[in-house]
């Protein structure tokens, strides 16, 4: 038995907040897990420190499935982002430990590589269509095979996905939520223009993606999907909020543009109908917010049975620990589609030394045993937590809307 002897929650802000769990075992082997929930970090830190850690001490670190079931069923209160991020952190750390004990990278424990590397998409954005195209051309020159396009909307001061900094995008940027304005009419005019310009500038081979970020109604999404069809998008993401899974039927009836959804899902139940009825093409649920490797394995197998592929979330609020875990998973899973990749700042990379590497549009998790990522606790301690919120959105008449 490999006893869990301690588990520490480490909160650090090397440019943005991250919550990390470090588990130690009787043999001295340690593992790390990510528990970051953007804008609600301390809720997960408390859930772990106050309610999960005391129940872990003395358990066998090798019993990953049993510990997952213990934390999921045993809480009585199932699912939800806080609970599932906390479970994910424990799960990632235990897979990390198992890999280190076995002397194997986690992807080997998951069945070995199904591909040579993991295709990622980068984020091209700009205030105008022309700026966005310039950014996309830079991504293409760096070797990216897939590029997400987000541009500003004329008449709106700011919108999701458009950054002041071309290298890094960080929406959780204020001590209290900033307020954005939204106009669906203005937005629906600019996106087809952006895609027309991008196809023309980038040619037929680059995959083009777009994130609607939950802003449309199903019929509006159907129209946008149809308008984008001539430019062959790889996907249209989060076209509508997905509480009501049936909404996607209406979108499907109107467009052949592939649909991706799920970065805010926490469990397979959030996507059951979407997958079962093949209402989507890509599932974006990811390791940290959907219960760890143990649970995304179930989601991906279920998706595979229905011809749905993975396209995991990979924004900067998912720490390098999640990125590493996702890459091991992506490399091994048969129904992989694509992986999102937003570069972390050099401060973040220094706090989380990692084995994964980028080469011409693809990432590889590396061959280090376990997840191949760690946290430099001394360095992390130099960056104390700083409260930061995601923005909120209002319509032009002042009504609250989805951000
Ligand atoms: O924390 C919220 C971000 O992760 C999210 O807004 C990013 O939509 C996003 C994406 O597709 O990366
Ligand atoms: Mg998104």
Report on the architecture of this protein.
The protein is α/β, with parallel strands linked by helices. It has two domains: 102 residues, Enolase-like, domain 1 (2-Layer Sandwich); 262 residues, Alpha-Beta Barrel (TIM Barrel). Helices cover 36% and strands 19% of the residues. The strands form three sheets. Strands 4-5-7-8-9-10-11-12 form an eight-stranded parallel barrel, surrounded by four helices. A three-stranded antiparallel beta sheet has the order 1-2-3. Helix 10 links the parallel strand 10 and strand 11. Helix 1 packs across helix 3. The longest helix has 22 residues. The chain is globular. The model has no long low-confidence stretch (mean pLDDT 97). Bound molecules: 2-keto-3-deoxygluconate (KDG) and magnesium ion.
How would you describe this structure in keywords?
2 domains; TIM Barrel; about 35% helix; about 400 residues; 13 helices; binds 2-keto-3-deoxygluconate; alpha/beta; single chain; Enolase-like, domain 1; 3-stranded antiparallel beta sheet; binds magnesium ion; 8-stranded parallel barrel
